[in-house]
Design a protein that fits this description.
Two copies of one chain form a homodimer. By secondary structure, the first copy, chain A, is an alpha+beta fold. Chain A folds into three domains: 75 residues, Arc Repressor Mutant, subunit A; 162 residues, Beta-Lactamase (2-Layer Sandwich), CATH 3.30.450; 98 residues, Enolase-like, domain 1 (2-Layer Sandwich). Chain A has 14 helices and ten strands. In chain A, helix 1 crosses helix 3, helix 1 packs across helix 4 and helix 6 runs antiparallel to helix 14. The longest helix of chain A is centred in the last third of the chain and has 24 residues. Chain A binds a DNA duplex (30 and 30 nucleotides) through helix 3.
Chain lengths: 348, 348
DNA sequence: CTTTAGCACTCGTTTCACACGAGTGCTAAT
DNA sequence: ATTAGCACTCGTGTGAAACGAGTGCTAAAG
């Protein structure tokens, strides 16, 4: 069990180390601490903290640095989120004040805003309803054997792809096929749509199309990309600022991880989307790779019926957590509000 | 004027420096050169080359390194493009052997392929016809006040955007408006389209739409993005490998330059697209910023009536130019061929 | 006139010794 | 329980010395 003063010392070590980036010694602490005790006393406390594994030395006679466990303890018991200033709140609102035509645009921009605000790297992931439903499907002939397929889902996602069809399918036949899709499949969750695409839909299409395979390919293809998660990353290059000392290979590894869409990033954010408060995960606690010297703050945001999304902030372990946690907490609310507004616009 | 042997020495210095990355000394040259002369003789030649400004020392008693002028001389008078192996050619063809549905996909992939092939950074820019023409315009209502606008141009570009319209415009009115656009504007160069959008088109639309402003906004907006150039970059992160020694700020500067679409990149590639052979520009010769230790190989590719595009390779100054120039020369042909095939598919 | 052997010289790199100082742990006194 | 005092540790910085790859120059040989 830690004494009151030991807790104070730990907090101060974290504060000073975050500010200066240098190991903190007992004399320095004596000057900075609000209480008046000698450096020897502080040294005793520091020894206890080290025994508890909360701080370490960089070498046998250096100042102390918070350990991963030290940060963990701090985050679990000591941090108190800082309130964001009115000014900052205004900046956020201002940044969101554009007009958006697609849900994705808002989510993408939120990563941008958050990275600008913090000078770290932000990752955002659109709200995901457990069962996205199909609300519309269109095929638009563009001439020259080209067709654009458009798929609309109830979470506001609009997916489109251009396909080249081998022979000219008569637009009459297409019309009918599209009508079948819209009559039979609209309103169903995407998972069910995908299922029926393999079972009874082909035979229904058979009546109108001589070879429904091409059509099914197109539909299946675009269905797949509508169902897959999409990440947006803002401030990739900020990594270079706060990862300064570490070597270039490390940097490349992290950038590749972030740029590789799907899969790995989902794991980094902690698996499938679910509602969580603002959470901090430290480098060694992260999967799929141990991001030494980095930590990740994640938070979910809630858009009611339209699902739950995630927003995350990747930065150095020596982050001003108090401030960042407060910021993210406000930010998630703003983002949720902005998305709710967006949906309200054409939902009723 | 350089003697035959001096030229040989220069070539060998460049070759060895490219291979090893270390300054080349007279003894090393004596071993590697095909002719048998003493190191003293070589030293004399090296002194002449240094007087001519083609090589320099890193310090007063080090081996020699090619100077920018030295590389310039080499590139202007000495390089002979290496033939690409059958294997490599096969790799290129193989990489292009997918099915493409959009012209952009081919161009984007070409940057990817080229960067994989070389481990450098590749930039590609789609073929640009001096006067792109409008070949089609569609508006597809998606429900919920949303409309997707699709614009097709004769260079195979397909641009689409989703808009939210304030009040429900009757689809009847829209139909008519679209017909006007298609009847009046299709076949015209985009520049003329943009012009007429400001002059006589509004009054024509007036007959069918009560407030054509919204429509014109949409159309103008999408027209703009169809007309703007688009760059594709492959192997951004390779920069980290070949820029290893240089500092992290340099790296960030270059990455920002590359990631900032439009504008700066056009300048880097040497202004507006035109037909050029494979060209090498060295760091100090580059605009808008002096990319010390880097050099840029550019080449245009020609797709006949469908315009001329650019492809470029950014790498370290110590590149195996002979090989890279040969490669890029073959690559431009392959890319042109691939695009020609693509257009032929629905052009007749 | 060109080439070569020889040699003194330069300068970056590595190694080692040494001093400095910030910081520690421990002990004994308060 | 706190504090003053002190020996000890260890990273950092400095300077001298040894090393070696490479150079420029001179004088002899071809």
């Amino acid at each position: 069990m830690l004494t009151k003063r030991q807790v104070l010392v730990l907090k101060e070590i974290i504060r000073l180390f975050t500010e200066s980036g240098e190991p903190v010694g007992s004399k320095r602490l004596m000057r900075e601490l609000p209480i008046h005790v000698s450096s020897a006393t502080i040294r005793n406390d520091m020894a206890s903290l080290e025994d508890a594994g909360l701080i370490t030395k960089t070498h046998s006679s250096s100042g102390r640095v918070p350990s991963t466990q030290g940060y963990r303890y701090y985050l679990d018991h000591l941090v108190e989120p800082m309130r964001v200033s009115h000014q900052e709140l205004a900046t956020i609102k201002q940044a969101f004040s554009q007009r958006y035509n697609k849900m994705d645009e808002i989510v993408a921009q939120s990563a941008q805003i958050l990275s600008n605000l913090t000078s770290y790297t932000a990752i955002s992931l659109g709200p995901e309803v457990t069962n996205i439903k199909l609300t519309g499907f269109r095929l638009v002939p563009l001439g020259n054997h080209q067709v654009m397929a458009i798929l609309v889902t109830n979470n506001g996602n609009i997916e489109n792809k251009v396909f080249t069809v081998s022979q000219n399918i008569s637009s009459d036949e297409l019309e009918k096929a599209i009508r079948i899709v819209n009559d039979q499949l609209v309103g169903l969750p995407l998972i069910q749509v995908a299922q029926r695409l393999k079972t009874d839909v082909p035979s229904m299409l058979m009546q109108y199309l001589t070879s429904p395979e091409g059509f099914l390919d197109i539909f299946g293809n675009i269905l797949k990309s509508a169902a897959s998660e999409r990440f947006y990353v803002g401030g990739r290059l900020n990594l270079m600022d706060y990862l300064g000392d570490s070597d270039i290979h490390e940097l490349k590894k992290i950038l590749s991880l972030i740029d590789a869409d799907h899969g790995d990033l989902t794991e980094l954010l902690g698996g499938p989307i679910r509602q969580t408060p603002v959470q901090v995960r430290l480098g060694p606690e992260l999967k799929p790779i141990d991001l030494a010297n980095l930590s990740l703050i994640t938070a979910s945001y809630d858009v009611g019926d339209h699902g739950t999304g995630m927003i995350a902030l990747l930065g150095p372990t020596q982050m001003p957590y108090s401030k960042m946690i407060g910021l993210l907490d406000v930010f998630r609310e703003e983002l949720a509000k902005r998305l709710t507004d967006y949906y309200a616009n054409f939902d009723q």
